[in-house]
Write a structure and sequence with these properties.
The chain is an alpha+beta fold. It has one domain. Strands 3, 4, 5, 6, 7 and 10 form a six-stranded mixed beta sheet that branches. The chain has a two-stranded antiparallel ribbon with strand order 1-2. It is globular, with a radius of gyration of 17 Å.
Length: about 200
């Protein structure tokens, strides 16, 4: 009997959902606060749907933007990616990776929509778990070790609350978790300064 071919989209969706769930669970475990995976993660509010949601209540918008719902005052909008071939480290080191640039733009649009800083938890099959975070936040938190620098190479000006978001740091996911309190505090302080 011939094997049934599995639909690629179904497998990709499951793979992405499992990474989002792991991210939410690890954040919850680390902080003692509740993090959850967004139902339909980003499908309703994110990316290309932004024009449709101008009239949506801010609380609903925040709960449906990005891939992870965080506690009150969580300063990050998280766009999770789980792939077999990205990030391509050699392309990041050499300068530009169009796929990473596209993900940064997507995360930036979502984060700007809810007045948060974008971060991208990334999982590459058999290579590890990482996070891309704006360098400005990491620098402000004093966390400047164990990272790869990536410069966004797209056309879009990425400015948010006075921060230039063209430079990003990639950390191992565990390093992010271990320094999360400092990063969260730095991002929240920045957001408060800009609103005062």
């Amino acid at each position: 009997m011939p094997k049934k071919k599995r639909k690629k989209g179904v497998h990709s969706k499951h793979k992405g959902s499992s990474w989002e769930l792991k991210v939410a669970n690890q954040l919850s475990e680390k902080t003692g606060k509740e993090f959850r995976r967004v139902p339909l993660s980003g499908a309703y509010m994110g990316g290309m749907n932004q024009a449709k949601n101008a009239q949506v209540h801010s609380g609903l918008k925040e709960g449906l933007t990005g891939d992870i719902i965080g506690p009150d005052n969580w300063p990050f909008s998280m766009e999770c990616k789980n792939t077999a071939s990205y990030p391509r480290f050699h392309m990041m080191v050499l300068g530009r990776d169009a796929q990473i640039d596209k993900w940064i733009e997507e995360a930036f649009f979502d984060a700007e929509n809810v007045n948060k800083f974008p971060i991208l938890p990334l999982k590459r099959t058999h290579r590890g778990e990482f996070v891309l975070i704006p360098a400005a936040i990491s620098q402000r938190a004093g966390i400047e070790d164990n990272f790869l620098v990536y410069e966004y190479g797209g056309e879009m000006p990425l400015h948010f609350h006075g921060a230039d978001l063209r430079i990003w740091y990639m950390f191992k996911w565990d390093h992010f978790l271990n320094n999360m309190d400092e990063l969260e505090e730095a991002a929240n302080a920045w957001l408060k300064e800009e609103t005062n």
